[in-house]
């Protein structure tokens, strides 16, 4: 933490204005590919949250009563502006997060899709009626916004994850307070600028930058009715339990340790390409990353050799440079933690078949770790149990599908899982017995699109309604039932 610098000091966005935080504490934001300071983010206080709540509360009174098609029209305009500014948004993601530019383009697309889904608000907000629940009596359900909603987001998808939350919440008539990750705060400011340009009234979307003080301010504030959280497991559990204890709706999406099971009949070209992309894309910093491959013994040597060969060919570097596939991890401290896990894996007796510490970029200024692969991993090892969230892949050898599923289901997490096979019967067995919310068949990152729910179970999710899709609409609305008898 530092207080003196020549880089930009970010402001909060409250009630349609850029305002200084009243905190004196700032944290430096780094470009992880170069280690350069690119901004300073305020670690805002509970007083800043209070100001945002006042603005959001005032805006809610009008916004919640604004005709739904008018709200949708602003979202259509927003979608257009996001498309027009796609290049700039993608570049900003790469600069603050480190992922390659092509992945950043893909992330912007996923964000835009959320806005497109939310623009369907007139249909999504519809209720239901039954004209005759008893003789001469009808019943109908009406949907309303819940009030002020807050979103707390992680560093790894600076656009997509906030876009799961605020466009739909706002389309449903709520006002919103976003607390972006303090490690990737820049994109959020651009997102709110473009939404304002699209015609969003002041106070409907507010940004309060910071860390745990802001989160605690949100958790304690009586006027905030619902919280969408995405981040690591311990924080998700804390936010869910504290928010629920304070009578709020909470959906808290958490960490992961996703397994890919490769069966003997799998197309190994497809499996290799998909696993490489899912394990090492975005430097393994995806909640849908392939962290473990459980491969059938009979093809294990062949698959491992192919994955190792493909990993050797990966281009590491600054994500802004043409052809780079693997960028840095988010911070120096995260790099150190990852190197610690590599050391731990060796001590635990796993076979290190590709050592990402040896790649030349690891010695530079950026926070690079090369693709790392452990073979002969077992479920008693920490490298199998913990979410490492970095380009480190564990291979577990199994005798068949049933054992692969048993290994995957032994994890405390249950976010995503993939199966590589052409056998319909095996696909069915996998679908029916695997513990995971998002399944992929012969593809590596089965992230659902905006109109479907996104999330998992066990330690990967706390709450009831998942993000996005109809679940998102349920989460951001409350219902009134009207039962009526009309008397002549
Ligand atoms: P994080 O938990 O460190 O931070 C997430 C948010 O919580 C940030 O806004 C941060 O400021 C806040 N926060 C952090 N510590 C806090 C504390 N002690 N008290 C209150 N607030 C706190 O997560 P991260 O490192 O930014 O993101 C990576 C994690 O997010 C990984 O575990 C990943 O699996 C998870 N993730 C999950 C999903 C999903 O859909 N399940 C999606 C993306 C990321």
TrEMBL record:
Pathway participation: Polyol metabolism; myo-inositol degradation into acetyl-CoA; acetyl-CoA from myo-inositol: step 7/7
PROSITE patterns assigned to the protein according to its UniProt record, in alphabetical order: ALDEHYDE_DEHYDR_CYS
Catalytic activity: 2-methyl-3-oxopropanoate + NAD(+) + CoA + H2O = propanoyl-CoA + hydrogencarbonate + NADH + H(+); 3-oxopropanoate + NAD(+) + CoA + H2O = hydrogencarbonate + acetyl-CoA + NADH + H(+)
GO MF annotation terms: malonate-semialdehyde dehydrogenase (acetylating) activity; methylmalonate-semialdehyde dehydrogenase (acylating, NAD) activity
Subunit organization: Homotetramer.
Protein task: Catalyzes the oxidation of malonate semialdehyde (MSA) and methylmalonate semialdehyde (MMSA) into acetyl-CoA and propanoyl-CoA, respectively. Is involved in a myo-inositol catabolic pathway. Bicarbonate, and not CO2, is the end-product of the enzymatic reaction.
Protein name: Malonate-semialdehyde dehydrogenase
Protein's organism: Sporosarcina luteola
Lineage: Bacteria, Bacillati, Bacillota, Bacilli, Bacillales
Gene name of the encoded protein: iolA2_1
């Amino acid at each position: 933490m530092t207080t003196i610098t020549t880089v930009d000091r970010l402001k909060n966005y409250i009630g349609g204005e850029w305002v200084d935080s009243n905190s004196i504490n700032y944290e430096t934001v780094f470009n992880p590919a170069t280690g350069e300071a690119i901004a300073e983010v305020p670690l805002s206080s509970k007083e800043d949250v209070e100001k945002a709540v006042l603005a959001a509360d005032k805006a809610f009174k009008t916004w919640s009563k604004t005709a739904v098609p008018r709200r949708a029209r602003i979202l259509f305009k927003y979608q257009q502006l996001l498309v027009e500014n796609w290049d700039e948004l993608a570049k900003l993601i790469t600069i603050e997060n480190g992922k390659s530019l092509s992945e950043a383009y893909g992330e912007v697309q996923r964000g835009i899709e959320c806005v497109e889904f939310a623009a369907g608000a007139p249909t999504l907000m519809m209720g239901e009626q039954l004209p005759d629940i008893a003789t001469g009596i009808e019943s109908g359900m009406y949907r309303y916004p819940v009030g002020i909603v807050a979103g707390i987001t992680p560093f790894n998808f600076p656009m997509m994850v906030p876009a799961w939350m605020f466009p739909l919440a706002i389309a449903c008539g709520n006002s919103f307070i976003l607390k972006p990750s303090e490690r990737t705060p820049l994109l959020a400011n651009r997102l709110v600028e473009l939404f304002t340009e699209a015609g969003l009234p002041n106070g409907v979307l507010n940004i309060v930058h910071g860390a745990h003080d802001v989160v605690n301010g949100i958790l304690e504030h009586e006027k905030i009715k619902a919280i969408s959280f995405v981040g690591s497991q311990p924080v998700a559990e804390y936010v869910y339990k504290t928010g629920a204890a304070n009578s709020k709706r909470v959906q808290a999406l958490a960490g992961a340790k996703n397994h890919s099971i490769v069966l003997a009949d799998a197309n190994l070209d497809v499996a290799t390409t998909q696993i490489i992309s899912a394990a090492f894309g975005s430097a393994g910093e995806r909640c849908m990353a392939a962290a473990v491959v459980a491969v059938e013994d009979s093809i294990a040597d062949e698959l491992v050799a192919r994955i190792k060969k493909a990993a050797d060919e990966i281009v590491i570097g600054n994500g802004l440079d043409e052809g780079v596939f693997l960028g840095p991890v988010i911070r120096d401290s995260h790099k150190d933690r990852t190197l610690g896990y590599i050391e731990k894996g060796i001590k635990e007796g796993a076979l290190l078949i590709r050592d990402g510490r040896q790649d030349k970029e690891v010695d530079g200024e950026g926070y690079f770790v090369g693709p790392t692969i452990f073979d002969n991993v077992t479920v008693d090892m920490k490298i199998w149990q913990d979410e490492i969230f970095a380009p480190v892949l564990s291979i577990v050898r199994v005798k068949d599908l049933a054992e692969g599923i048993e290994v995957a289901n032994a994890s405390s997490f249950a976010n995503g899982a993939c199966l590589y096979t052409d056998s319909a019967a095996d696909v069915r067995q996998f679908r029916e017995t695997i513990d995971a919310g998002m399944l992929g068949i012969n593809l590596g990152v089965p992230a659902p699109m905006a109109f479907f729910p996104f999330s998992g179970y066990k330690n990967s999710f706390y709450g009831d309604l998942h993000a996005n899709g109809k679940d998102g609409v349920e989460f951001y609305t409350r219902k009134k039932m009207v039962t009526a008898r009309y008397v002549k």
